């Protein structure tokens, strides 16, 4: 497949990836056995067969249950290292990885364990694979803002130890009914602390959530943002201000945000001059890693090689890498 080779050869950054969403069924079963946990599916095949989703919530239910096999530092390390090896194969030179500490601390897993496992994998990958990585700590928006504040408080003592990788803060989970303003105070605090800020918006929620993520949370990038198209004024602003959108085509397809990939608005937004990037979101659940997402879009939306190169370049430009490291890949 010539086009797949072309895509893999483009230096790319992955900017929208949930590390818990990279846990493949095979590794999930291995970790379950290692930790003496019984999974509600008899086999890898039966588990994979359950990956048919109607919407975001039906996915999140399985995703949080799957994360329950992550107990020890080595579990977080193995999951992260498996993703980074896979990322290298796809030509990813830099990954900005979200994680959901609340999913783990709520089960009694210490914050230190989560940071230590993911952090050690990021450092090993930098040294042995030549893939750089940053961490974005994401708050779960279905929980109260007070829980986000206490999560931040638990993580801050680790900031010095992970200064080279913990760059920012994100906001994920169930969007509808959990608007950006619910997290205005904790995001203001994170901004004072010097973190880079991102938030999911306009995936299932309305265009107004994209605007409010920019104006109230003051995020630098929007995760998804595909429903921005419903508001022409917002679209003009996104183009004007070059706000990066981290779009996840195969995720949108699997979660029924679009009925088919041919109906996806990625190419339309790109051709309108928006700062669009392609990402994999939760690749173990959505049937494709980063190069698969690029390839599926090329085939379904008729993206040519120049457009694929623009998308790859956008991913580097929209990353939180320092300018001199971006220049190395542009
Ligand atoms: C997510 Cl696709 C998506 N949307 C919102 N929150 C998430 N967490 C993991 N994947
Ligand atoms: Zn996401």
From TrEMBL:
<dbReference type="InterPro" id="IPR006330">
    <property type="entry name" value="Ado/ade_deaminase"/>
</dbReference>
<dbReference type="GO" id="GO:0005829">
    <property type="term" value="C:cytosol"/>
</dbReference>
<dbReference type="GO" id="GO:0006146">
    <property type="term" value="P:adenine catabolic process"/>
</dbReference>
<comment type="function">
    <text>Catalyzes the hydrolytic deamination of adenine to hypoxanthine. Plays an important role in the purine salvage pathway and in nitrogen catabolism.</text>
</comment>
<comment type="similarity">
    <text>Belongs to the metallo-dependent hydrolases superfamily. Adenosine and AMP deaminases family. Adenine deaminase type 2 subfamily.</text>
</comment>
<dbReference type="InterPro" id="IPR001365">
    <property type="entry name" value="A_deaminase_dom"/>
</dbReference>
<keyword id="KW-0378">Hydrolase</keyword>
<feature type="active site" description="Proton donor">
    <location>
        <position position="203"/>
    </location>
</feature>
<keyword id="KW-0862">Zinc</keyword>
<feature type="binding site">
    <location>
        <position position="200"/>
    </location>
    <ligand>
        <name>Zn(2+)</name>
    </ligand>
</feature>
<protein>
    <recommendedName>
        <fullName>Adenine deaminase</fullName>
        <ecNumber>3.5.4.2</ecNumber>
    </recommendedName>
</protein>
<feature type="binding site">
    <location>
        <position position="16"/>
    </location>
    <ligand>
        <name>Zn(2+)</name>
    </ligand>
</feature>
<dbReference type="InterPro" id="IPR032466">
    <property type="entry name" value="Metal_Hydrolase"/>
</dbReference>
<feature type="binding site">
    <location>
        <position position="282"/>
    </location>
    <ligand>
        <name>substrate</name>
    </ligand>
</feature>
<dbReference type="GO" id="GO:0000034">
    <property type="term" value="F:adenine deaminase activity"/>
</dbReference>
<dbReference type="GO" id="GO:0009117">
    <property type="term" value="P:nucleotide metabolic process"/>
</dbReference>
<feature type="binding site">
    <location>
        <position position="281"/>
    </location>
    <ligand>
        <name>Zn(2+)</name>
    </ligand>
</feature>
<dbReference type="GO" id="GO:0043103">
    <property type="term" value="P:hypoxanthine salvage"/>
</dbReference>
<feature type="binding site">
    <location>
        <position position="18"/>
    </location>
    <ligand>
        <name>Zn(2+)</name>
    </ligand>
</feature>
<dbReference type="InterPro" id="IPR028892">
    <property type="entry name" value="ADE"/>
</dbReference>
<feature type="domain" description="Adenosine deaminase">
    <location>
        <begin position="11"/>
        <end position="330"/>
    </location>
</feature>
<keyword id="KW-0479">Metal-binding</keyword>
<dbReference type="GO" id="GO:0008270">
    <property type="term" value="F:zinc ion binding"/>
</dbReference>
<keyword id="KW-0546">Nucleotide metabolism</keyword>
<dbReference type="Pfam" id="PF00962">
    <property type="entry name" value="A_deaminase"/>
</dbReference>
<feature type="site" description="Important for catalytic activity">
    <location>
        <position position="224"/>
    </location>
</feature>
